[in-house]
Each structure stands twice: as structure tokens, then as C-alpha cells.
Amino acid sequence: MKISIIGTGYIGSVTGACFAEMGHQIIFVGRDTKKLDLIKSGKSPIFEPGLDQLLLKNQERITTTTDIADAVRNTEITFIGVGTPPREDGSSDLSQIETVSHSIGKALRSDSKYHTIVAKSTVLPGTIEDLIIPILEKESGKKAFIDFGVASNPEFLKEGTAIEDFFKTDRVVIGAQDQKSRDLLEKLYKPLNVPIFKTTLRTSEMIKFASNAFLATKISFANEIGNLCKELGIDSYSVFEGVGLDTRINPKFFRTGIGFGGSCFPKDVCALIAHAKSKGITTKVLNSVMEINDDQPKRMIALLKKHINPKNRTIGVLGLAFKPDTDDIRKARAIPIINMLLKAGARVKVYDPVAMDNFRQQFPDLHYTSSASEVLTADAVLIVTEWKEFENLDYHGKLVIDGRRVEKARNEAAIYEGVCW
Ligand code: UDX
User: Fold this and answer.
1) Is the pTM of this model over 0.70?
2) Which structural domain, as residue segments, surrounds residue 413?
3) Given 18, 264, 270, 420, the catalytic residue
4) Which pLDDT value is given to residue 28?
5) Which segments in the chain show pLDDT lower than 50?
6) Which of 260, 388, 402 to mutate to test the pocket of ligand 1 (most atoms within 8 A of CB)?
7) Is the CB of 214 under 6 A from ligand 1?
8) Does the annotation count 420 as an active-site position?
9) Same domain assignment for residues 407 and 287
């Protein structure tokens, strides 16, 4: 199949590389020529394990362009994978989706074949029908589902394991109204041999939000119980191991600690809350999910203060990325934690194997060290991201507050506090 992928961020680059690996011809479309050049030369524009190799291996099936019209005319299906960043009020900024839809619509005008446009970016229920389709129809002068197809196909990729998640996904969700688009997407995903769930456009859009909101709820629920466990001297990790054995519940996404960050959970939950509010619905559970998540970093600082007054002391922070195996610091827990440390008058020493450059842009004045062990010379150490290498440090004699359950620190530190254990 000939496929256009619009957007060279997480969704676009991973989806395109994986489709190329499946044997399809891919045209990557982006505005940033530097990123396109990287892709063309077989290098990943983002930090994602295994992506470089996949792009390099499939170089002959991959081309790039800045011209959407060119890509649309030369392919049969276009995936929109541009960003939908959060606005100040929590709602999603859809300007990139709009811009891209205008360009695709114009391209459809002179495209004689039946082309299917697929929204892979996370968009609120109704966005395809109420925003994307009207733009496409106006710009093309054609009718959706008659002259061209439109579908929703949300991604469920986790940063750091995105490639594995693509090929071994629990399910593919296809939202479509026209049979041709539904069949095309089904044909595309069939070789993965995974369950394919077919539904309407709006339902598909909602499945993505409900999935992320549920996983975020699971984490905040675990943290709420975890906070109580801490008070009662119970290990919440053992509790959720036991709870997770119930197949109705499942053991995944029960890791307690300082809560969730990243580009999806906080953004998607807030967007859903804002959307519900605009429809007059109060989201009591989701409001609490965010409230608990905002409180977990505060608990970490409170535990630190139990042992040491951070004022004029050096506090080390291990890990800045929102989770291991990524350089992404969007909504990383390290941000509120470091802000609180600075406010308390601490000198902050930090280390992360890959996210320091990104972090430096927001926090230029921290002491960035060249190794994790250098951070351990601080008066106290906070573990904020569970990078594997932090399991190899020598924590003997140290004061450690652990937000992510690093076993070696738990076993060795002179004074050790886990946030929920
Ligand atoms: C998430 C979804 O998992 C994915 O399906 C969606 O498409 C994109 O958003 P991602 O943000 O890459 O993926 O990371 P994920 O592994 O889900 O972790 C998100 C955050 O939750 C991280 O900060 C992580 O540390 C935290 N988390 C995760 C916990 O605190 N406890 C857990 O048990 C799991």
C-alpha cells in the first residue's frame, strides 16, 4: 500500500516506520526539513529505542516531502499524526489538525481516486465529523464517504516501547463510516494478527480518551491506596501484586509512587474534563484523578522534609524524563519536584541519561552532573525516574526518598522512604 504520514513526531515517525517494516511504501510529510532529512537518512527524529534501526532497514520504502498535496496524490491513504497540544484551560489546541485538513482538502480537489484520510492524532469525540470533514469537503468540493473516505484509528503506543506496542498491540481500533475505508484499514492491519475492533468515528475517538483516562484513574487509585498503605506500614507494591491477580482487574499500571506525567495522560484527562464541562457534565472521578496526581510530588517533598531541611542543602535528583527510555520531559514529575526544592531554598543537582538537554532549556541554572553517582554525593537523593542504571548505584550510607521503587536503593540506603511503601 502507498501511505502518507503527516507529522514526524512520536505518532507519525513510529507509525510510518512500522508500516514500512510491514512492506508498505511510506511518504512522510512534515514542516521541519531537518527532521525529514534525518528520516530520509535512516535516523530517528525522536528518541525511541529501535526506531533508528527500523528507519534504516526500510530506507528504500521511505520518502519524505514538505508538500501535503504531493503526498496525498501519490498515495491511497493518509494518516494525520500531528500534535494536539494542551491549551491553558486544558482543552486541545487543534490548529495543526485544521491546517493539515485544509491542505489535504485542497489536494483532494485534483485527486481523481478514492483517498482515505485517517485521524491517528488524539482528538476529542466529534472532531472528525464536526471539524475535519467540513474542512475537507469545503476545500475539495467533494462529499465525504462518497468521493473520499475518512476514518479514526487511535494509537496506543507507549513511549520507550512504541515499536513493540505497534506490532503486539492488544487491539486495533478502526472508526469508519464508509465500507471502503473500513476495508482498507482492516487489510492494512490484518497481518498483525491482533483483534480489530470496528466502530463509528465518534466511538473510536472516545475509546482513546476512555482508555487513557481509565489507566490514569488506575494509577491515581493505586496512589491513593498507596498513601494509606504508607501510613499503615504496608507495602503497596505487594498489595497491588495481590489485587492484580484478579483477572477482572489485571496487574498492569498499578505502580504506585509520584504519579503519571508525559504527553498523554495529563493532557487527555484534562481535555476530557474540559470537554465534559463544556457539555455541562461534572467529571468527579477524573477531577480527583488529577488532584491525586498533582499531590504525589508534594508527598515526596514532605517525606524529604521529615529528614532534612532542604534550605541551603544540596539535594540530588535522579531522573528527569517522565519515565525511563525517553528524553521526553513533558509534564514530567521532575518539574514540580524541582520547583518545590528550589522554592525551599535547596541547591539542586540532577542527572538523567538522555533528558538533560531538554530539561536544561526550562531549568538552565541547575547543576547538571555527568554521572548518576555524582548525584549521590548530595545531602539527600530523590529518585524521580526509574532508569535501569539507577539499579546499579551504591546507595550505602545515603538518605534516599524514592518515588519509583528502585530495589537497590530500598535495600542499601541508610535512610530510605518510598512514597507509597
Ligand atoms: C500512554 C499510554 O500508555 C499509551 O497507550 C498512549 O497511547 C500514550 O500515553 P506513555 O505516556 O508513553 O503512554 O507512557 P506510560 O507508560 O503509559 O506512562 C505514563 C506515565 O504514567 C509515566 O509517567 C509513568 O511513570 C506513569 N505510570 C505508569 C505510573 O505512575 N504507574 C504505572 O503503573 C504506570
Assistant:
1) yes
2) 236-418
3) 264
4) 98
5) none
6) 260
7) no
8) no
9) yes
